[in-house]
Known about the structure:
- It is a single chain.
- By secondary structure, the chain is of the alpha+beta class.
- The two termini are about 50 Å apart.
- It has 16 helices and 22 strands.
- The chain is elongated.
- Among the domains are: about 15-45 and about 490-605, Glycosyltransferase; about 65-240, Jelly Rolls (Sandwich).
- Strands 3, 5, 6, 10, 12 and 13 form a 6-stranded antiparallel β-sheet that branches. Strands 2-11-4-9 form a 4-stranded antiparallel β-sheet, with no helix packed on it.
- Helix 5 (about 260-280) runs parallel beside helix 16 (about 585-605), helix 7 (about 330-340) runs parallel beside helix 9 (about 385-400) and helix 11 (about 450-465) packs antiparallel against helix 12.
- A hairpin with a 4-residue loop joins strand 16 and strand 17.
Amino acid sequence: MMKQVVTGWITGLLSWAALQPAVAQVRHIKDPLAVVKLIGDKLVRETPFQYRLKTAGIGNRLDGLHNVDFGRTFGTHRPAMAYAYTHLVAKEAGSFTIQLAHTDGCTIWLNGVQVYQQSGKRPLQLQYEERSIELHDTLTLPLRQGPNALLVQSVSYGGEWVFYMQPPSTKGAVLEKPVSYPDIGLSSVPRVDAAVAKLSNWLLLGPIAPNASGIVPENGPLSFGAMYAGLDAPVTWTIPRIEVLGDVIDPLPWGTNYNWNYHNGGVAWAMQNLAEVSGDQRYRKYATDFCDFHLNGAPFVEYQVKNLRASNSANHHFLFVPLLDFTLAPSLPFIYRLRREPAFANRDSYVKHIDRMLRYARDEQVRLPGSGIYTRLTPEKYTTWVDDMFMGIPFLVQAAQYAATPAERSAWLEDAASQVLNFNKEVWDEQANLYSHARYSERPVKLPHWSRANGWGIWATTEVLMVLPKNHPKYKAILSHYQKHVNALVALQNERGFWLQLLDRPDSPEEVSGTAIFTMAIARGISQGWLKADVYQPYAMKGWEAIKSQMEPDGTVHNICYGTMCSEDENYYRQRPFYDNDTHGLFAVLFAGIEMHTMLNKTNAKK
């Protein structure tokens, strides 16, 4: 462990030394607004808001959802039967469980032995959950080491005709031991060329009369170069129809800044605020382009998911995933624009989207029984994440300001205020005065004090404090909690102005997104009068200088932690990869610069 820590510090110091010539040009910029405009300019300059076409990837490991769409290849207008053939290649012998879903009749043979059969007409059943698609049938396959022949016979009675399989979902859990998934595909099938194996994981044969028998030998090698009796004419082995999909352009390991998710919605929301403070309408246009790209592209995305069976195609989360990361949080720039602009060309589309999100926020998102706070069913039922303070509560605050009546405004604000206090009962560590990343309702396990999770908590708290009337019965308790959190945080800021990935672990690396959120939250507190400027401004200034030390003149921001699940293992957080320009950090830095600019203007005006 010590060797890893020392190596990490050496790598960090080398990286820091290499950055110095470039960041020196940023450090001399005094106005925080001018600094974050470098980021805004880069976003405007480099974001295409376009799809590029590509062939659908096949994936050669059975670690996710795989399907065979017989209907796309053979048609769906009349009853028929078809076969699909592939190999599952196991590293070692053993049982492997898969989930299944299919239309109508289905029979499966593994290595010549029938292992599954369902007959009769049945609809396809896919259950969409927070981080998975669940299939209703389960099958355990006795795999032998090496290639295993899997043959699927599918019968259609007319209409939708498809077969799905996948391993059971881990539901986003961080596993102690990696699962050994078999490979899937045709590369080990004798007499199949490698070029064919690159195009498809499956060989198909059909369409055949639904009552035909003995067409394909279940326990013998496939015969290539032969013809079989088809519905209208002889048929032979082929591959499924190859689909062309739209994908985002040049994604990095963390994605792009225009995928549909909370941190990209956060960037668009930040750009709206930057436009207002700076007067530069290019930033407002960026936010508008983000919103319009997703609204206008929704039919295309829906076609890919529903017609082409590309369940994980680009921006599929926009269609509706029951998780705050893909519902309320990325919708912040939509509701913000509705609030600020009374009329624009496609306002009705925004209203329709936000009406759906308001229903979701009020009636559909999972809440913790007895508490009423937003919670999750993953990785375990009723896991309360600090992250969801930001994923949900700022939207509730915006909803209050968007509300048509005083009663609606009061109801949204009451929900937001109550959630802040009730989240604190669930995930606040009274001994450390910090948030643990999450809490499992069924297991009393203490999770680490992850930096960005604490950021999400304090950010949501400040959003409520800015709008909640000071005479509201919950205002003083929320303000007191915010001040207590700030006092714990400033004690953990290091000598270079950073907060660490794990806040109270000195062997944890410095990280930008958490540092940016805390800097923002302190600067906002000074501007709003929640904190004394003479006491807390030095911490904000020190944090801002640390952020600037990770920036380059072209707007690049370094050392941002990748998206993170929750875990009891501290090393999981220490070892998360850091990237340049990951939007988890970009929108935090944008808001930090805006709040620093506001704070300095206010404090300078008092001098």
